[in-house]
Write a structure and sequence with these properties.
It is a single chain. The chain has helices spanning about 40-45, 90-100, 105-120, 135-145, 165-180, 190-200, 215-220, 240-245, 265-275, 290-300, and strands spanning about 1-10, 15-25, 30-35, 55-60, 65, 75-80, 155, 185-190, 200-205, 210-215, 230, 250-255, 255-260, 285. By secondary structure, it is of the alpha/beta class. It folds into two domains: about 1-220, P-loop containing nucleotide triphosphate hydrolases (Rossmann fold, 3-Layer(aba) Sandwich), CATH 3.40.50.300; about 230-290, Alpha-Beta Plaits (2-Layer Sandwich). The strands form three sheets. It has a six-stranded mixed beta sheet, with helices on both faces. The protein has a four-stranded antiparallel beta sheet with strand order 2-1-4-5, covered by helices on one side. A four-stranded antiparallel beta sheet has the order 12-13-11-14, with no helix packed on it. A hairpin with a 2-residue loop joins strand 1 and strand 2 (about 15-25). Helix 2 packs across helix 3 (about 105-120) and helix 4 runs parallel beside helix 5 (about 165-180). The longest helix is centred in the middle third of the chain and has 16 residues, at about 165-180. The two termini are about 35 Å apart.
């Protein structure tokens, strides 16, 4: 559905994207994860045809995308990072304008507007000026505006910034339903929980380059070994903590032990030691690495402006 071949984009001395290549198949829900300034929005602007790359090729459904060719962008819907609505107009009026820009008219346009408003629970407020809407309501309306023409590819550029939890959940549920119906979605975010919840395959981008690409399980293999097992620090578990000193590192804080084994230590050996001391399995919790750990490992911990 989307093919990027050696895409480069510069703004003066700044290289926003540097030789980025990516292939996304039909029906994927693909996550683009990166810190502020990583190149996510620039990539979205190139895919949507709002800007041209300085080098490389962008193609959607086999057709090259270009700002000079409006027809090449009909297959694309864009939900921008900033709200793109006419604040003095109602939801219905906004959607009518966006629908007509895509060539929709008459009964078909009215039907699409009604379906969209119902899908994001805005039917009762459809005639109110958008300036009276909450941030979450405006985000939901922005999403519908990008879908009126039934695109093959939907680009969501951080679509939940400043949104309340109920609206975020409604957006997630709606996007998931659209994807299950066959819509290809590229979802740009710097929220780990969003990428984990929505996207089976994720690319981590930073400084204009893709540093990792794969499923969550595949990305976790990029981490140094850092599994750990937690258990309460009590008189009963003290002998186990002492035994584990030769198998890794035991840290103790706030009434709990955290055992970080060596990479060659087998977890079965841990539980054998625990059983020999009569300690029940319910005392122990194994901590799995998270996408956030991968993200920080790849992009660093320095603050971004």
């Amino acid at each position: 559905m989307l093919s990027l071949r050696s895409i480069t984009k510069r703004y003066g001395a700044l290289t926003a994207l540097d030789q980025v290549s990516l292939e996304i198949g039909p029906g994927e829900f693909f996550g683009l994860l990166g810190p502020n300034g990583a190149g996510k929005s620039t990539l979205m602007s190139l895919v949507s045809g709002l800007r041209s790359p300085d080098a490389g090729r962008v193609a959607v459904d086999g057709a090259p995308v270009s700002p000079a060719d409006a027809a090449s962008r009909v297959a694309i819907g864009l939900v921008p990072q900033s709200i793109a609505l006419y604040q003095e107009l109602s939801a219905e009026q906004n959607l009518r304008i966006f629908g007509e820009l895509y060539g929709l008219r008459g009964a078909l346009l009215r039907e699409r507007i009604a379906e969209g408003l119902a899908a994001v629970q805005l039917t009762e407020r459809r005639r109110e000026p958008v300036k009276h809407y909450s941030g979450g309501m405006q985000r939901r309306l922005n999403l519908i505006a990008a879908l009126l023409h039934r695109p093959k590819l939907l680009l969501c550029d951080e679509p939940t910034v400043g949104v309340d939890p109920q609206s975020r959940n409604a957006i997630f549920d709606y996007l998931t339903a659209l994807n299950r119906a066959g819509l290809t979605i590229i979802y740009s975010t710097h929220y780990m929980e969003e990428a984990t919840r929505l996207c089976p395959r994720i690319a981590v981008i930073d400084h204009g380059r893709i540093h990792a690409l794969g499923t969550l399980d595949e990305l976790l293999t990029r981490l140094p070994f850092e599994e750990e097992i937690g258990f309460p620090a009590t008189a009963d578990t003290a002998p186990l903590a002492a035994q584990l000193a030769d198998a890794g590192t035991v840290l103790t804080a706030d009434g709990r032990h955290r055992f970080q084994p060596r990479p060659d230590f087998r977890l079965s050996a841990f539980y054998q030691r625990a059983e020999s001391l009569g300690l029940p399995p319910r005392l122990f919790t194994a901590a799995r690495p998270t996408l956030e750990a991968v993200f920080l490992h790849l992009t660093g911990r320095n603050l971004r402006e």
